[in-house]
Specification:
The complex is a heterodimer.
Chain A: H1 24-50, H2 57-78, H3 86-105, H4 108-112, H5 119-140, H6 151-163, E1 171-174, E2 177-183, E3 186-188, H7 190-215, E4 217-220, E5 223-226, H8 228-247, H9 251-269, H10 272-290, H11 294-304, H12 306-314, H13 323-334, H14 358-391, H15 395-419, H16 437-458, H17 471-474
Antiparallel strand pairs in A: 1-2, 2-3, 4-5
Helix pairs in contact in A: 1-2, 1-3, 2-3, 2-5, 3-5, 3-14, 3-16, 5-16, 6-7, 7-9, 7-15, 7-16, 8-9, 8-10, 9-10, 9-15, 11-12, 12-13, 13-14, 14-15, 14-16, 15-16
Chain B: H1 2-29, H2 31-35, H3 41-47, E1 55-57, E2 60-61, E3 63-67, E4 78-82, H4 85-92, E5 95-96, E6 100-101, H5 103-107, H6 109-113, H7 120-129, E7 137-140, H8 144-157, E8 160-166, E9 173-179, H9 192-201, H10 214-217, H11 227-236, E10 253-254, E11 261-262, H12 275-281, H13 284-294, H14 296-305, E12 312-313, E13 317-318, H15 329-336, H16 346-357, E14 362-363, E15 368-372, E16 378-381, E17 386-388, H17 393-409, E18 421-431, E19 437-448, E20 456-463, H18 474-493
Parallel strand pairs in B: 1-7
Antiparallel strand pairs in B: 1-2, 3-4, 5-6, 7-15, 8-9, 8-20, 10-11, 12-13, 14-17, 15-16, 18-19, 19-20
Helix pairs in contact in B: 8-18, 11-13, 11-14, 11-17, 12-17, 13-15
The chains are: A mainly alpha, B alpha+beta.
């Protein structure tokens, strides 16, 4: 495993302190922008809607600034060599999301159908919880390799989380997809947390099995065919994805998990054949399920002809929704530069306007320019994650980082693609932007783990330990 | 492990690139069509978010805008109002919060709402100076007096009908009336009352179909008024050199290849009559034979030069008038006297009169003179356009003298105006199975003032269900309305 960082250790072992710059001050400078931009956006919304600077501006600015500041201090203390971009980018997206959620709170239409009104304060609370979890990850997870110990517990945990929505009385069916559970008045999407836990399981499992999967294979038509027994795990994951699709009727979650697994499998084994298998299996699964599951079918129909879906919905035929078409109109009406924050009519999307469809509001009010900027921010987060994977010195860290960033990228693609009519709509939300506690909290944890891995990766004087047991020997190392 | 990692990095980059491309397609390429989609509620919201610009006639707006109570979920701030809505509806069309917009209200929506690109500079300036965005005005070519004369004339008759008046030298539409009409203000809002009013106006519930714009969208058999086109064809193709040469017209005359005699209305002197005489008393036999002698190709060519078989965009679309393209010889004869499948909009017949009055040049009819920004700067100005030249200036003058004879001492005497030369042609078109329904009374005419110019050409059509069948003739019912319209235009000029 080659490391891309310029480790100073092979020059001399005595001046380890002038190694990689920690880049903490870069992070701080970027954070100032990441807080200032949403604050300006917030003022902008207030001026556009009520002709006055919103009264909550100071509190909001201080709140976001405080959260970001505490996050930064914890990173400075506990992960000094972490990637400097991840925290500011996530803060920026989270802050902009809060602004737009507050903007949609002002819509009388959404208030009247109880889709908005008090979402922003709640989202701010979720953000605080998310950053708290982020801090907890950094403080308590001193080394990501510790997670390796929990490989099989993670598997059980992930399955448990994934199956929770199917528990009668606990699971909720919201607009056809059963990916929520209801606890004490809060709707939780366990899938968001399962994403991280599954990545831990896959990374731990594949790290152990990767040689068997990669080497014990026969060559057939230019492809390395794995042995039957090595096919087991991929079949199991595939089956679980299909089960999610069938019972929770959510194409997005299913695609996300399976896609994440295939990416990690490919990275672990360096075998292109797994990608081919993965694509074939997901295509077969998706087409198979879509042909008999009416909810998925309807999503596909709505994707192929959103205008017809809109007309059917307008005629009052149950089971149809005008959201898809309304979202397209929102994007189209935004045009190149958008209407300006607070001046669009994306509340016409009505249901889930501030969660699944929040990107449409960005599209309408910030235009093509704004959406491109946001997509590039997501792209940057993903590429920083991939970079972390490249820089990581241990296979578990590499696999976990690529799994988490790959899942993040797939989620962004599936949600943004769905809202923009590129692929059928699914029930997931844009990380950080969308209203929803599970999503915000889980994604802050995800960024926390990536930051931890990147800190380990960029830290000078690498620990030679490749497995947790080696930590014991580290103690007695001189220096 | 780094090689697959780099590939995954590229793959993730491609995912983002795909999204970027899709977004460009959505927000750049398809942006306009999505933003202006009629089902897109934003179109309606924009239409009523600011005081809508006005449609102006003779310097006075015939439309208005009123603030609605923006209570609850009503996201529409302003509502359209109309002055004399029923009279102007064929011009303005409607703009309703609940039922969309049509005609000028729809076609010039960009200017009226202030969203048109041509108002961009103005809007930007307003934004900088903090002024509220305002819609621009659509200034029409219409003449309020003429429109009043036309609409009131139809209304006094109480019969279905339409009037179109044009300025022959430019093609400006001076009057465009349809009866029965509707008041677009009754359904301009989106309340239940508005919905009820809208329902009552639909053809399903109202057999009179008041929302039909008869002046532009209804085609009627033109009957004898079409003889003007046939006479023009005869002159242009040199069948007869002038108005006063005796024609080769036997009486009775049998339709070619049949044994059916073509009848004239009553015992009129049509045998070998000159074209002037034949037009004066409206001989079917003479013009039927002219059409048959010329043949269908020449007749079609001439009719199309007058604008038949094509839609007109004023910019409000008119239906295409029909001169049949597939017909045998007897059908050609019948078509040439405005029967068989020949059908014309009132606008079309006004264009015929107008082309003759304008020494043979047909001007493209239009009703929007200019578009203004909210501070009355002109944004666009319509220039008169020549559409075609159906007949030479010399032949046009011959035809004028024929039409003037019709008014002086023929069927159109009731259109005479003191001190003004009037040329015209009456028509009575039968319709219904075996002519069972009341015929349409037609009159087309133009007026020429002392300096030789012609300020107005008119077409009037009336379907009179109340009058006795025998009473109906273009001269009796339609000519007096045409006269009033022409007088209104001439007096307004003074």
């Amino acid at each position: 495993m080659s490391s891309t960082t310029n480790s100073p250790t092979h020059h001399t072992s005595t001046i380890g302190s002038i190694g990689t710059p920690s880049r903490r001050n870069t992070e701080l400078a970027l954070l100032v922008f990441a807080v200032a931009i949403p604050v300006f956006a917030y003022a902008n919304v207030g001026l556009a809607i009520n002709d006055e600077v919103p009264s909550g501006l100071l509190a909001y600015g201080l709140g976001l600034g405080l959260l970001a500041g505490v996050g930064h201090l914890v990173v400075r203390k506990f992960a000094p060599y972490a990637d400097p971009l991840l925290l500011p980018l996530a803060t920026l997206l989270n802050g902009l999301g809060l602004v737009v959620i507050w903007r949609l709170d002002q819509s009388k239409l959404l208030q009247s159908i109880k889709q908005a009104g008090t979402a922003a304060p709640r989202q701010l609370m979720y953000t605080a919880m998310g950053i708290a979890l982020f801090i907890a990850v950094l403080i308590f997870l001193k080394d990501h390799r510790v997670l390796q110990r929990y490989t099989y517990i993670s598997m059980v945990g992930a399955l448990f989380l994934l199956l929770l929505p199917l528990v009668p009385g606990l699971g909720q069916n919201i607009y056809g997809a059963k990916i929520w559970i209801s606890v004490a008045g809060f709707s939780i999407q366990p899938g968001e947390f399962a994403k991280i836990v599954l990545a831990i399981f896959f990374a731990g499992y594949l790290m152990v099995k990767r040689d068997a999967l990669a080497l014990a294979s026969r060559r057939f038509m230019g492809l390395y065919l794995p042995r039957g027994r090595d096919l087991g795990p991929i079949l199991v994951v595939w089956a679980i994805s299909i089960l999610i699709l069938v019972f929770e009727t959510d194409l997005g979650t299913s695609l996300l998990f399976f896609g994440m697994f295939v990416i990690m499998l490919y990275v672990a084994t360096e075998r292109t054949s797994w990608i081919v298998f993965g694509l074939l299996m997901s295509a077969a699964g998706a087409v198979g399920v879509a042909s008999f599951e009416p909810h998925i079918q309807q999503r596909v129909d709505a994707w192929l002809d959103p205008m017809k879906e809109y007309t059917l919905s307008r005629q009052g035929i149950p089971g149809h929704s005008e959201q898809a078409m309304q979202a397209l109109w929102a994007f189209g009406s935004g045009g190149t530069l958008g209407t300006g924050l607070g001046q669009g009519h994306s509340d016409l999307i009505r249901f889930a306007a501030n969660s699944d469809f929040i990107l449409a509001t960005f599209g309408e009010e910030l235009g093509l320019a704004g959406i491109m900027a946001i997509l590039l921010i997501y792209g940057l987060i993903v590429e920083r994650g991939v970079r972390t994977a490249l820089a990581a010195r241990d296979p578990f860290g590499k696999l976990l980082a690529i799994g988490l960033s790959g899942a993040f990228a797939l989620q962004v693609f599936v949600v943004a693609g769905g809202v923009m009519g590129l692929i059928p709509l699914t029930g997931m939300t844009m990380p950080f932007l969308a209203y929803g506690g599970s999503s915000v909290i889980a994604n802050w944890a995800l960024v926390g783990i990536l930051i931890r891995i990147s800190d380990t990766a960029r830290r000078p004087a690498p620990a030679p330990a490749t497995n947790p047991d080696a930590e014991m020997t580290q103690v007695v190392r001189p220096s | 492990m780094n090689k697959p990692l780099r590939r995954i990095a590229i793959f993730c980059g491609l995912l983002v690139l795909t999204l970027l491309l899709r977004d460009n397609w959505l927000q750049y390429v398809k942006s306009d069509s999505l933003a202006t989609d009629d089902n897109n509620r934003r179109v309606t919201i924009a239409r009523y978010s600011t005081p809508r610009g006005d449609i102006v006639v003779d310097g006075d707006p015939v439309t208005g805008s009123a603030k609605t109570s923006k209570s609850g979920l009503n996201d529409l701030e302003f509502k359209r109002t109309y002055k004399d809505g029923a009279m102007w509806a064929p011009v303005t069309g409607y703009a309703s919060q609940a039922f969309g917009a049509n005609q000028l209200e729809n076609l010039e929506d960009g200017i009226l709402t202030g969203n048109d690109d041509r108002l961009f500079f103005r809007n930007t300036l307003d934004m900088v100076t903090g002024k509220q965005k305002q819609g621009g005005n659509v200034v029409t070519t219409l003449n309020a007096d003429a429109q009043k004369a036309a609409y009131n004339g139809l209304k006094a008759r109480g019969a279905k009908g339409a009037v179109v008046a044009l300025e022959p030298s430019t093609g400006k539409i001076l009057a465009l009336a349809s009866y029965p009409s509707y008041d677009p203000s009754v359904f301009a809002g989106n309340s239940n009352d508005d919905a009820e009013a809208w329902k009552k106006l639909q053809k399903k519930y109202n057999p009179d179909d008041p929302m039909l714009n008869r002046a532009l969208r209804e085609t009627y058999p033109p009957g004898s008024t079409f003889k003007v086109v046939t006479a023009a064809a005869a002159l242009e193709n040199n069948l007869y050199p002038d108005a006063d040469t005796a024609t080769d017209s036997p009486l009775p005359w049998t339709l070619p290849t049949t044994t059916t005699e073509l009848k004239n209305e009553g015992n009129i002197p049509c045998k070998n009559a000159t074209m002037r005489e034949a037009l004066r008393v409206s001989c079917n036999t003479v013009f039927g034979k002219i059409g048959s002698d010329l043949g269908k190709d020449k007749m079609i060519a001439e009719a199309e030069k007058f604008g038949f078989n094509a839609e007109q965009f004023t910019p409000v679309r008119s239906s295409a008038s029909v001169f049949p393209e597939k017909m045998d010889r007897p059908q050609t004869a019948l078509s040439s006297i405005g029967q068989f499948e020949t059908a014309a909009t009132p606008l079309q017949m006004a264009m015929v009169a107008s082309a003759v009055a304008n020494d043979g040049k047909l001007m493209k009819p239009y009703m929007v003179d200019k578009l203004q920004s909210s501070n009355l700067d002109t944004v666009a100005q319509t220039e008169p356009q020549e559409l075609s030249q159906p007949l030479s200036s010399k032949n046009a003058q011959i035809l004028q003298s024929m039409m003037e004879t019709v008014v002086k001492e023929g069927t159109g005497t009731r259109a005479q105006i003191d001190g003004v030369t009037v040329g015209g042609k009456t028509g009575t078109a039968q319709h219904g199975v075996d002519n069972s329904e009341n015929p349409y009374a037609w009159f087309i005419s133009y007026a020429k003032v002392a300096d030789g110019s012609s300020p107005v050409a008119v077409a009037v059509v009336i379907e009179d269900e109340n009058a006795n069948r025998g009473d109906i003739s273009g001269g009796g019912l339609a000519a007096p309305i045409a006269k009033k319209v022409m007088q209104a235009v001439i007096n307004a000029k003074k």
